């Protein structure tokens, strides 16, 4: 799904009108037809509330569409002065068609009381300041009377800023928001769900290929994830699905390594090997399918010759969870990223998380060794250390800071949290899955395991990160329907089933 703010929407609009030569009134008609498709068969007795911009124009066009389907329709016109051209055209048609139009605020209570469904087209992407006066009164009245009615918002609930999700003084609380072309960036704001209701994104008659060059941001949906799927060749063998080497876990934190390894195995990697202390036997019990590369932490260098062979044999290396920030951890990290290509001549992909990111923040010369082949998966605090921006700065301008960082260091960034971001500096994806019940230790390790596994199965870095984030959150979203908290172990046991559902059902 395309993701865009008010500016992107205007650009698409201009492109459609000026380059594709689609008259703007046709776009509005298409929007109205698409919108009306979602009106239930049993829904009747509508009050359409219209402003004077194109959002209001959509409202009049929708009123006409509903009227043509013999629905009971009344319109409340907020102002018939200074209407936009297309708003005025549709307003005139409504008048000429005999649809009842009301103008006086005193009438609004009765109209709201008598209708069953409200469609509001007061403001859309054109809202540009705090809402006051009569507009505020009308929005408050809609909310007051909406308890037993269904409220549809056209494009954006009037009062929500399409870019930021900020409530501009007051906002309509919709049951359903039917928005056009792009999922509005503002919808991502976590505390406005009660204003948006169910969100549906509709087409206005544009082929995605015609406008895709205008948009570089996407809201990750199952369609996009399905589109990334690489079908398994029936003649394939385990060597085709990646040799993944994992450096995760250390004394006191072996669980981290075990979680990464198990997630990696469950997500379908061909062969999984974990570099771990020679005295750690928990891996074999927790993940019998994984192999271990024992290392003597008393004298790590004595293992480096063998380790070099292991690196040359790998397709992907995941580094970080639970390794600590000791000099020894740093030495192993440096060794693991010192070889760029494996025995097959392929670039060895890297997935860096947790302490690997902290070590990277403190040893910035290592960025040179990881460029063009890495996914970095920081949470906000790790990203703050990596990027030098404060949490406040990142939260204010997350998309741009994330993109600039990915571009500058030539890496794929997966910035974790609510609405995880994935970007390679050019394209940006925002994850649509996940919930607060998964905010507990080990979740990130699980994600790392899934991503390195996918990278081993020949998915690109961006694709691995997108599928990983989507799948990880999707499993949690399913589990919270029947349980209160979701831990990494719960996710792990459901990876394969959810992969089947996403890729094959
Ligand atoms: N390409 C697209 O996405 C299309 C957009 N269409 C519709 O066009 C809408 C955008 O239309 P407009 O750009 O005309 O903008 P709007 O209709 O959202 O609002 C603009 C009007 O509201 C006034 N206004 C803004 N803030 C105000 C405030 N705080 N208090 C009082 N008045 C205020 C402006 O002066 C202007 O008259 C979209 O939201 C969508 O509904 C559709 O017609 C189909 C095509
Ligand atoms: N409120 C939330 N909404 C969506 N996803 C969340 C939320 N809280 C945590 N997550 C997800 O859980 C994971 C936690 O990762 P991380 O912070 O690295 O945990 P840890 O290091 O403890 O394993 C991330 O993938 C993050 O996106
Ligand atoms: K609206």
Write the layout of secondary structure elements.
Layout: E1 3-4, H1 6-18, H2 24-36, E2 46-50, H3 54-68, E3 73-77, H4 85-97, E4 100-102, H5 105-114, E5 117-121, H6 133-145, E6 150-154, E7 176-180, E8 183-184, H7 193-196, E9 198-202, H8 208-211, E10 217-219, H9 222-228, E11 243-247, H10 254-266, E12 271-277, H11 282-286, E13 291-295, H12 304-312, E14 316-319, H13 327-336, E15 349-352, H14 354-362, H15 367-370, E16 374-376, H16 380-387, H17 391-396, H18 398-409, E17 412-415, E18 421-423, E19 428-430, H19 443-456, H20 461-479, H21 488-504
Parallel strand pairs: 1-8, 2-3, 2-5, 3-4, 5-6, 6-7, 7-9, 10-19, 11-12, 11-14, 12-13, 14-15, 15-16, 16-17
Antiparallel strand pairs: 17-18, 18-19
Binding site for (6S)-NADPHX: 54-58, 124-130, 135, 155, 256, 322, 379, 445
Catalytic activity: (6S)-NADHX + ADP = AMP + phosphate + NADH + H(+); (6R)-NADHX = (6S)-NADHX; (6R)-NADPHX = (6S)-NADPHX; (6S)-NADPHX + ADP = AMP + phosphate + NADPH + H(+)
InterPro entries: CARKD, Nnr, Ribokinase-like, YjeF_N_dom, YjeF_N_dom_sf
């Amino acid at each position: 799904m395309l993701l865009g703010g008010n500016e992107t929407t205007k650009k698409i609009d201009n492109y459609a009108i000026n380059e594709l030569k689609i008259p703007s009134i046709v776009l509005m008609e298409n929007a109205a037809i698409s919108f009306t498709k979602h009106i239930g068969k049993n829904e009747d007795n509508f009050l359409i509330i219209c402003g004077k911009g194109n959002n209001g124009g959509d409202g009049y066009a929708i009123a006409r569409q509903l009227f043509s389907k013999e629905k009971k329709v009344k319109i409340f016109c907020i102002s018939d002065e200074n209407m936009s051209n297309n708003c005025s055209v549709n307003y005139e048609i409504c008048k000429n068609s005999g649809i009842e139009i009301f103008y006086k605020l005193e009438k609004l209570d009765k109209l709201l009381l008598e209708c069953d469904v409200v469609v509001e087209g007061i403001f859309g992407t054109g809202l540009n300041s705090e809402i006051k006066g009569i507009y505020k009164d009308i929005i408050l009245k809609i909310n007051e009377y909406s308890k037993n009615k269904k409220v549809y918002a056209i494009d954006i609930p009037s009062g929500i800023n399409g870019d930021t999700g900020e409530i501009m003084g007051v906002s309509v609380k919709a049951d359903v928001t039917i928005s056009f072309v792009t999922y509005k960036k503002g919808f991502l704001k976590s505390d406005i769900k009660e204003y948006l209701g169910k969100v549906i994104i509709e087409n206005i008659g544009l082929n995605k290929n015609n406008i895709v060059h205008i948009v570089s941001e996407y809201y990750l949906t199952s369609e996009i994830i399905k589109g990334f799927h690489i079908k398994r060749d029936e003649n394939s063998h385990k060597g085709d699905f990646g040799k993944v080497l994992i450096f995760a876990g250390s004394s006191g934190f072996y669980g981290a390594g075990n979680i990464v390894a198990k997630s990696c195995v469950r997500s379908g990697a061909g062969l999984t090997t974990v570099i771990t202390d020679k005295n750690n036997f928990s891996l074999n019990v927790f993940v019998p399918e994984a192999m271990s590369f024992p290392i003597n932490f008393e004298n790590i260098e004595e293992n480096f010759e063998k380790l070099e062979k292991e690196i040359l044999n790998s397709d992907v290396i995941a580094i970080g969870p639970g390794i600590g920030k000791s000099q020894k951890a740093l030495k192993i990290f440096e060794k693991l990223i010192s070889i760029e290509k494996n025995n097959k001549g392929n670039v060895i992909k890297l997935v860096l998380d947790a302490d690997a990111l902290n070590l990277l923040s403190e040893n910035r010369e290592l960025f040179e060794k990881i460029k063009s082949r890495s996914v970095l998966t920081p949470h906000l605090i790790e990203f703050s250390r990596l990027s030098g921006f404060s949490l406040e700065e990142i939260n204010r301008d997350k998309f741009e800071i994330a993109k600039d960082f990915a571009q500058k260091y030539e890496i794929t960034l997966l910035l974790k949290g609510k609405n995880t971001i994935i970007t390679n500096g050019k394209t940006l994806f925002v994850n649509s899955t996940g919930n607060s019940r998964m905010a507990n230790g080990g979740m990130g390790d699980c994600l790392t395991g899934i991503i390195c596994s996918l990278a081993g199965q020949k998915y690109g870095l961006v694709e691995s990160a997108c599928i990983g984030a989507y799948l990880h959150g999707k499993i949690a979203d399913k589990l919270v329907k029947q349980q209160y908290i979701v831990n990494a172990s719960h996710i792990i046991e459901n990876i394969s089933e959810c992969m089947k559902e996403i890729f094959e059902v």
